[in-house]
Structure formats: structure tokens, C-alpha cells
Amino acid sequence: MQQQVAERAGEVIAASTTEFTAEALELHSAPPFGSFVKVIEPKRPTIYALVSYVETGGLDPTRHAVARSRPPSIVDEEIYVQWPELRDVLRTVFTARVIGHIDARGAVRHWLPPFPASLHFSVFVCTTEEIQWFTRRHDYLAGLIRDPSGTEELTAAAIRTAVAAHSDQPDYLLQAARSVARMLASDYIRLHLILQSIASEELRQ
Amino acid sequence: MIGYQAGSDRDLGVVVGGTLSKGLTIRLHDPEHIEHMHAGDYVVVLGNELRYLSVITDLALKVTDEHLLANPPDDLFTRQVLSGTATYATVELLPTLALETAGGKSQILPVRSIPAHFSRVQRSTKDDFTAVFGEEDATHFCIGKPLDSEHDIYIDLTRLTERSNGVFGKTGTGKSFLTRLLIAGTIQKNTCANLIFDMHNEYGWQGVSEGSTGKRSVKGLKQLFGSRVKLFTLDRKGSDQRGEQVDGDIFINPSEIAEEDILLLGSVLNLRETAPAVLSALQRHYGTHWLSKLVFLDQKELDTVVEETGANKESVRALARALGPLRKMSFILWERSGMAEIQSAPITFDEVGEDVPPSPVAASSGASSQRNSAVRDILTAVQNGQHVVVGFPAKDDLLSYLLVVNLLTRRLREHYVTETNRSIASRQGRPRQIMITIEEAHRFLDPAVAQNTVFGEIAREMRKYGMSLLVVDQRPSAIDDEIVSQLGTRFICLLDDEKDVRSALSGVSGATRLQTVLASLETRGQALLIGHALPMPIAVRTRAYDQDFYRAMAGSEQPEGEQFQSSSFVSRMSRR
Asked: Which residues, numbered 77 to 106 in chain B, qualify as contacts with chain A under a Cβ-Cβ cut-off of 8 Å?
């Protein structure tokens, strides 16, 4: 299989220990919700995170976008052709929840890195191989489940992304789900929500 | 990763809790495995230093969140995910003993500690069973196999016969087979003499097996062991009809029948409350002839008796009427002609009717002197290293059974006490250890009579005189609790009634937990074994009573009867 090259997706514009926000390189082109991203810095751990929130709005937070369509001809994509400056006054930002890092010895660590991401550094979308490598174990899900702001949606999305990266998908899905079931042993309602979101229709027959 | 990982493929689960008094809780690694765990199965808990051999007493399904019970999953995927995570199975164990292995040898220790959290649990192995139950040798006899494995379980017959024992179980559960198996074991290993009161004639010559394929005959003790077993009968005619090789008849002299023998029959004969007082008065007055006098009492004599003893006339009449059935007993050597004072025919009682059989010795009193007393015959056989089976009339003649069993045992007890004391004084060999098998044991051991009968005494304190009982009964709850709790080893087949279960297990540690094991036994051929002859309780499938068994028994060596025989003892008996 040809080695994938990590694709640059944005630039860090705010960061804390548990998450960072980046501006997407282009309008409406943030990495998908639940995708794995990373920030590489020299002599620092590579930070791994899950895209947990995407938002598009005006550069100036005090100015709101207004409706510009003129049906039937000027709708949707035609609006941007009509008013090309929109691409300069609007922007897409995304937030990523930090789920682990690669330490100085090159080992995957499913816990928070010692430093937050540095501002203005690049955010890359992880390749399939990287996702496979990072998600061989499921402990990173514990952080998502424990996080008070964490949602079942994000956990489910992370599992879906991870499953897609693995070749033995049914087995991997079962093992991941069983890990989540142990983490949510005392909260069947949350567990049920997650299981409903990760199992395909066929599996739920 | 969170969760329990199996240390080895053989690991069933890990200890997650428990107490010394109530047992351990095991969480199974694979909840699907629960179907392969059975109450009564043996597992071993691998402690740091000890192996705790434990019996499964209960199984449970658990959930980590009660919400799950309200919304059970309806798809396979969710069930697979939850299995072993949010849903799991636990097993309750009762550690029965601990094995300490040092230098390749295992030492059996009582359980006085418990293993630490998360100790691993595995199926017990053949080595575990061998370390605990030993192997076939001079005293160890194979009694069966554990419910879940094919290892032989051996019982120590020397320890068994040291104390009184019980075989309990409702009808058709294999009590008689188990009893015959045990007796065959003691004969083969020659650990004691046996006196078997064979109420239903199923031990002596041949028994009947009621299997799934219908009824079939199986060999009795006489067929198995030949001359080593002496078969006596009260009912020669019936024995002949069954084609039995009988060695002798049982005859009882009326003078051998004591007041207490009659009182034991109280419930069967419907004796009045006044009976004990009347019996005492008659015995005081007429000595050994009291019973003959009473049984063959005529109208004229009634007045004389009343006059001489001062007893109430109605009470004497009622007692005589109640004792009427005794006249029918052909094995009692009524010496009517020897009683010169009897001139007229006895009172004819309605209950007795006209069909009173002629007494075997009524016409020839001289014959009675040539007939040996049954007690002497039995003792001679026992001292010769033989075993005695006493057969009874085929129809369930409870009265004859109770009378003969009580009387013979009482006389045996007297001899054993005398001889043991004599042997201590003269520093000679003790009389041979004897085990007396009684069916319908509650008749002799119910709380109302146990204090007064010889059986209560044997069960409680005749160990030092070399006598013990093998009590066979289907209603252990009808037996005095004190007696049951004194039983050394118990063999318990399936019991339905809760009272019987409680009673059968009375005085056993961990009894409530063993109740589950007991309730899970199959209706036939399985038994829970507890007590003195076994290092720990165990549920077994009893050994098959088949051609292999016959061959094993046939291959046993003849006993060295001489070592038990004390010529002076036998000759003293003969003089009695």
C-alpha cells in the first residue's frame, strides 16, 4: 500500500492542555467531525486530537452574515461567485479534543501531553496508518467518556473513524465497543446511545 | 485495558469476594461458560501458597447497571458487547479444604484462610482428587466419580466403620444400591463384620435394578461373596420360592423378648398408655414367661393374672389383645406345652381371627432345645469373619421386622459390651468391629423412642465397643436430630422435602450452601457424600453395579477370619 502523506488542514489559533482550535486553510474545508488530527512540533511530543467541533462565521464576530440569494439564478455556490470577497471575510474554525501524544521515545500515550499545542503551528489530518497505530488499544476513549463536556456523539464518531482504519473491522468494532461497555459499566443509558451510533444496521438485526 | 484477562486457557475466573464463613465469589471470565458450571462441581482456587479445593454451591447472573434489566438488548451485537462487560456471571464456592504442596507431596489442611482477591480459579485435576481421596488400597474403596469428571473417588472404609453412618434419599434414588455398594466394600476390604437387616430382601441374595431399560436382577451379597456371607431368614418358604441359598433360620425364644422390645412396637400395635405399667407388673411377677403367659391368656387366667399382679383387668385384656399378632409369628418358639398351667384354649380375639398358624414348636417342645438361638448363630458367624444378612417375610411385615431387629441388636449390644469389657480386663483381642444396617431407621430412631432404644445408644456411644449403625431411611426428618448429628458419614441421595434436607445436613458446616448441591442431584444414581470417611464433602455419580463390579468383588481375597476369632469368645457364646 502506498504510504499516505499527512495532509495539512489548518493552523492553531487557540490552545489549552485539553483542546486546541485551528482555522481551516480554506472556507468550509475543516477535517470532518471525529477525525484524527495531529500537531507536530520540534523537540515536543506530537499531539493527537479528535475534531470535536467545527464552526464557520465572520472574521469580525460583531458582524453577522446575511442572506444573499436571489432565486432562481443566484443560489448556493453562485453566491460566492457573485460576491468573491465573502471568502475573505468568512472563515471556518475547528476545535480538536486532545486524546494523547507520541512521547520522546516514539511510544503512543493515551493520556494528555505535558504541553499544549503552540499557536500558529500546523494541524495535520492523520493518515490511515497513523490512526491504525494510535487506536490499536482503546484507552484513549476513556478520556472522552470521562470528560464532562465529552459527548456520546464524539466517542461514537471516534470509534467509527478508527474502525474504518482497521482491516478486521467487525472484530475491531466488537473489541472497541466492549472496552466502552467496561468504561460505562454503571451507565447503560450512555452506553446504549454510543452502541446505537457505531453499529451498522446489519449488526443491529 | 480495563477488565479481567485470563492467565491461562484453563482459568475459569477470579476470586472477587467472599468470607471464610460464607464462601467465595468468583467472577467468570466468560459469562457464556456459566452453562458448563454445575452445583456440586469441584474447582480449585490458586492461592499464593495453597490450592483451595472448593465445591460450587451457587451460580448467579449479574449486571453492572440495573437499567439494563429494564431495557434488555434486542440485537446480537449489543448482547455480544455486554456479555462479560455489563453483564457477567458469578459462581459461589465453598472451600472445603486446602492443599499445601511441598517437595512434590501434598498435605491436606482444613480451610482456615481464604485466597486473596483475583486469585485464579481452575477446574480441579485428577492430581487434586488423588491428593484428597487417595487411591485404591487396603482400606480405600471406589464409591463413584465426581459429577463433572471421570476421576475415581475413594472412601476410607476403616474410618467409615468407626462410626455410625446414614444413607438417605427418597424412594427410587438409589439408596439400596448405594447401601449394597458400601457393604460390599466393607466385605471386600474386610474392614468390619456386617449384620444386615434386609427388610425388603434386596441385599442378601439378589436385588432389583429399576433402570431406564426396565427392571433387572442384580447380584446380592451372598451371590457376590459366597460363603463369606451368611444368609438367615425368618421366612424360609419365601426364601425358597425366591431360590435363595439360605444358611439358616432365625428363631426367637419368647423369653428373649423384653419389655422394651414390645414397647418399641407401641405405635404399630396401638398399645395403650397403660401398657408399660402392665408389662412391668407382669414381668416382675412371671419372669421370663411373662410374654407367653400374656399372648396365650385365656379368660380364666385373666382373672388369676389380675389377682396376682394387681393390674387393671381392662388394661391387661387390652394388652393381651394388642399382642395377638405376635402369635402369628412363626419364628417365635412359643412353648405353650411347657406351660403346665395353661389348660384351655387361648382367648380368641377378633383381630387375630381363626387363622393362627400352628406354632413351629407348639407340638414338639423338644425341638426348641435343638434350635440355636439366632443371636448365637449370628455372633458365631461374625466372629468367624463372616457377614450376616437377615431376610424377612416378603410382604412388608413391619411388626416382625421391628421386633426382630430390635431384639437381635439389643442382645448383640449386650454381648459386645460384656466382651469388650472382658477383653480390656484380660487384655485379649476385642470383638470384631460390626456395622449393623437397618432400613426404615426412623422406626427405631424417632425422637419419641430414640432415647430408650438400643439404636439411639449405639449411634451415640457404642463406638468404643466396636458397634456402629448404617442407617438407611427416606425420611431423615423423622429421626432424632441428635442421632443424625452424631452420624459420622452421610450418603445423601435426592431429597424433596425441605425438612428432610435440613435434617440430613444437620450438624454439617456450610449446610445451607450444600443444600443447593443436594437439590441439584439427579433423581437416580447420584449422592452427596459428607463426613468422617471423606476429607471433604463431594457429590458423586455412584459406582456402577455391573459386571465390572462383580469381577472386582470376585477378585477380592478371602479374609483371614482367624485374626478376629477368639475361640474362648465363641465357646463362651455357645454356653449361653
From this structure: 77-78, 80-82, 84-86
CA distance A191 to chain B (A): 10
SS3 A202: coil
The verdict on a CB contact (< 8 Å) between B77 and A186 is no
Q: How many CB atoms lie within 10 A of CB B238?
A: 16
Residues A159-187 pLDDT 10s:
999 999 999 999 999 999 999 999 999 99
CB-CB under 8 Å, A204 with B2: no
Q: Amino acid identity of A86?
A: L
Q: Residue B553: how many CB atoms within 10 A of its CB?
A: 18
Give the three-state DSSP class for A159: helix
Among B333, B324, B331, CA closest to B363:
B333
Nearest CA in chain A to B2: A182
Measured between beta carbons, the chain A residues lying within 8 angstroms of B77 are 174, 177, 195, 199, 203-204
Mean pLDDT for B369-386 is 72
Residues of B in contact with A182 (CB under 8 A): 2-3, 85
Task: Tell me the shortest Cα–Cα distance from B73 to chain A, in angstroms.
Answer: 9
Give the residue extent of every domain in chain B.
Answer: 11-132, 155-250+373-575, 254-368
Walk across the sheet containing B193-198 and list its strands: B153-156, B140-146, B538-542, B526-531, B489-492, B165-168, B467-473, B434-438, B193-198, B387-391, B229-233, B248-249
- Domain positions in chain A: 1-126, 135-205
Note the ipTM here: 0.87
Does the structural domain B155-250+373-575 have CATH classification 3.60.21.10?
no
Distance CA B170, CA B339 (A): 47
Q: For the segment B523-544, what is each residue's pLDDT rounded down to a tens digit?
A: 888 999 998 888 888 889 999 8
